[in-house]
Amino acid sequence: GFFKTNQLISNSKAIVKCEKIGVINSRRRMVSSDKSEPSTVDVDEENDFDEATIDEDVSKVFDTDSNENISSATNATEVDERAKAIKDYESELHKELASLENILRTERLNLARVKDKVCESGKPGFFMVQAQVNDFLRKKDLDQKTRVAKNKREFVEKMLPVVDAFRKSRETAPPLTEREENMHTSFGSLLTGILNVFDKYGFKEFTAEPGSKLVPGKHQIIEARDSDTDGIIIECVRSGMLDNDGEVLRPAQVIASKAPLPIPVDTSAGEESTSGVDSE
User: Fold this and answer.
1) Smallest Cα–Cα separation from 28: which of 18, 19, 41?
2) 195 in Cβ contact with 167 (< 8 Å)
3) What is the pLDDT of residue 64?
4) Could you give the maximum distance between any two Cα atoms of the chain, in Å?
5) Is the pLDDT of residue 58 over 70?
6) Distance CA 214, CA 229 (A)
7) Are strands 240-242 and 204-206 parallel, antiparallel or unpaired?
8) Which are the contacts of 191, defined by CB distance < 8 A and separation ≥ 6?
9) pLDDT, tens digit, for every residue of 184-228?
10) Parallel, antiparallel, or unpaired: how do β-strands 252-258 and 219-226 relate?
């Protein structure tokens, strides 16, 4: 760029010099045409004048160009600084906007909480709280009833083997003395008390009547005897237990009848006799 600038300056000086020489020659022709006045133009002065004038003109031209370049560079720098300032301002605005949005969100949450407190403090809030309390008490009562029913059911299931043992005590250990008879009487009193507790808890004892029809799920077959009819109760070995809803807690053990299987008919002899007749 430096060499190009020097070349441009040299070319400009040459052009200006040529123009000045043309002006001087025209002045000489004018002086020579006027014979009444001698020529007083000095060549050295002309050359000095020409060189000084050329340098001055060229320096003015390039001073003007440099000033324009400097002013354009200054303007570009100012534009860049202004754009940077605008971007910085935009980033600050975005930060302020995000901060304001967070504040607005927090205020909305606080407003919702205040509205809830106001509703709870007034008449609607009273009915709301009352409904919540009633719902809580209802669930608590239902859970308590379910827990009590479960405990009663577990108690009855655990006491049923004891009841069976009391009932079989005379068979397993028949009384031989008065003392043993008194013990069996005491066992009978305990059995009656346990059955009363079962009845109080809502559990009912049932038996299977001989001759009645067998009911699956309610009766448990422990022995099957051949009979003409199928599914008829012959004897009840152990009583069963039902709850208030009619659900079977323990099925009754029974001896039921079972019809004999049909005897298959042997048709091979008949077929042979039929085939012999046909052959004859």
Assistant:
1) 41
2) no
3) 56
4) 192
5) no
6) 12
7) antiparallel
8) 163, 166, 167
9) 888 888 888 999 999 999 999 998 888 889 888 899 999 988 888
10) parallel
Output the six-digit token pair for 240: 């069963």
Q: Which residues are paired to 219 by β-bridges?
A: 216, 252
Residues 268 and 211: their CA atoms lie apart, in Å, by: 41
How many Å apart are CA 10 and CA 13, to the nearest integer? 5
Q: Which tokens is 103 given?
A: 């504040």
Q: Please report which residue ranges of the chain form alpha helices under DSSP H.
A: 2-33, 43-121, 123-167, 169-172, 178-201, 268-279
CA distance 142 to 148: 10
Radius of gyration of the chain (CA): 65
CB neighbour list of residue 210: distance below 8 Å, 6 or more residues apart:
233, 234, 235, 236
pLDDT of 224-276, one tens digit each? 888 888 888 999 999 999 988 888 999 999 999 887 666 665 566 555 555 55
What strand order describes the sheet that includes 204-206?
A: 204-206, 240-242, 248-250
